[in-house]
Amino acid sequence: MATLQANEQVVYQRPRALTEVNTHYCPGCTHGVAHRLVAEVLDEMGLQDRTVGVACVGCSVFAYNYFDIDWVQAPHGRAPAVATGVKRSLPHDSIVFTYQGDGDLASIGTAEIIHAAARGENITVIYINNANYGMTGGQMAPTTLPGQKTTSSQTGRDVELQGYPIRAAELLANLDGASYVVRRSLHDPKNIRMAKKAIQTAFETQVRGLGFSLVELLSICPTNWGMTPVESLGWLNDHMIPYYPIGDFKVISALQKETCASKAEG
């Protein structure tokens, strides 16, 4: 970095945990925002050198290009199983997280994520929900809203034919093995700051050995939604948040965890 002048101040710089490459994501896509938040947290917590990411299939598959950490590529939907293997083989030395989209986690990977949470695997999941299959052309996903038009539901999702969207955070929060399950959004600065705090807490949950943690991040997909980035941000706020409310669905402290364990043994 060039030497700063006396009246200059650094207000932005690339986190060390991010690689210096050009993005491949579509204009306006908030995957890049999510990447930066994760990288900032890894930097600030001093976790970069011991972190292993697990990428899955979908837009999230290219996450390994953007983070300067170790990565493992998992088959579609199987990131929680791969992460389980990595964490169990290096339980004290590694910080393991999966980076998954809704078409991956809430569809082909439903069994994997449910059982990882039920087992209380000490891993962290960053879950991007943009309400469609982003990489393959914008088809209807398990998270597509009722009435939402996609390339495979051109008259809108019909719940009588295709069922209702899956609220993954609420579903997983009901499992005893889950310790920290929350939903945040990436549609404005306030919510982005809240998302970063949640990601930090999720990694702290793993560092303290408290078990499974997941942060669901509502994200936009301007290309497949057929909107401008600005229109997409408004659509997320007006339509996604009412169906996927922002909030904390499961937050267990170390003391609560010990109490639960004692009751289970008793």
Can you characterise this structure?
The longest helix has 19 residues. The protein is of the alpha/beta class. It has one domain: Rossmann fold (3-Layer(aba) Sandwich), CATH 3.40.50. A seven-stranded mixed sheet has the order 2-1-3-4-6-5-7, with helices on both faces. The chain is built from ten helices and seven strands. The chain starts with 30 loop residues before the first helix and ends with a helix. The protein is globular and about 50 Å long. Helix 1 packs across helix 7 and helix 3 crosses helix 4. Strand 5, helix 7 and strand 6 form a beta-alpha-beta unit.
Per DSSP, the total helix count is: 10
Report the count of strand segments. 7
Element pattern in H and E: HEEHEHHEHHEHEHHEH
Task: State Rg.
Answer: 18 Å
Instruction: Please tell me what the overall shape is.
Output: globular
Rounded mean pLDDT is 93
Tell me the major beta sheet. 7 strands, mixed
CATH topology: Rossmann fold
The strand order across the widest sheet is: 2-1-3-4-6-5-7
Just give the CATH class: Alpha Beta
> What is the CATH H-level superfamily?
Thiamin diphosphate (ThDP)-binding fold, Pyr/PP domains
Compute the number of structural domains. Answer: 1
CATH architecture term: 3-Layer(aba) Sandwich
| Distance from first to last alpha carbon | 59 Å
